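haha ok so turns out i had the wrong file open the whole time. this is the CORRECT one, sorry everyone. sequence first:
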Amino acid sequence: RGFHPVIDKIIVYRTLTKLYGTYYEGLKTALKLKDDGRIHTIYKQTLTQTGRLSSVDPNLQNIPIRTEEGRELRKVFISDPGHVLLSADYSQIELRVLAELADVRHLKEAFIQGEDVHVRTAQLIFHKTDISPLERRQAKAINFGIIYGKTAWGLAEDLQISPKQAERFIQNYFASYPEIRTYMDLTIQEATERGYVETLFHRRRYIPELNASQYQVREFGKRMAMNAPIQGSAADILKVAMVRLENSIRQKRFQSKILLQIHDELVLLVPLSELDEMRELLKVEMEHAVPTEVPLVAEVHWGSDLFEVKDHA
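then structure:
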């Protein structure tokens, strides 16, 4: 990109053909399966290594949201007459889980006090109080990059900076949050010895790659060992929230139904008469799914279709 104008055209072409083939044609085919005006997906409990639910035939966890053209497709998913779609997603859950698991003092303080955690990170790594939007964006990329074991090269590519500068950012990050480095080193060491890592709920993920003969495979194993407890715990928390929510809906004899789980988000079909109560119930059950020092925060939205859902907070 940037070397020849044809590259931008190829990217646009690929985006549009993906939208047309996977979503426009794919969703039309899915509609014909039961011919009841609805798109039915299948949720798999045991397909992912992380413990997250996965959606197939069609995959409704990949409904586009990043491009303007892609977001238009969200208008396909509408509520029944007299109902709305109610959505709640966890705010920065993996970062919160990391703060909890690694007992990261500065991160925990930021979350408990309701601060902008990316601004707090930027202040620590840039050693200054006033943070520009660019510096916040860089800190955000580092916050989430560390969770996925991103290298200086990967971070440099994401932020369009030199690998040397990216390496300096990462060093400053671990100097600011030393507990994260300690936690990750300990996690890799224990996983290498035991052959597995565990989530907050002691669900195991085995990582044989850590003892592979090839260096690159071992490095991949290390990244998995660092990420699996974090992503796996987030998946566990959402499942606990789903069970609690379903039990509460039944106890109250509400007509509301859980429709979709999209990564860290739940989407419900809610009669208008239950909207106020369900907004409160959904937030409470998600935010109190498990006892943690770091508060869990769920952001609630609603609308007549999935496109409109994000407009109402």
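The CA atoms of residues 223 and 274 lie 44 Å apart.
again sry for the mixup
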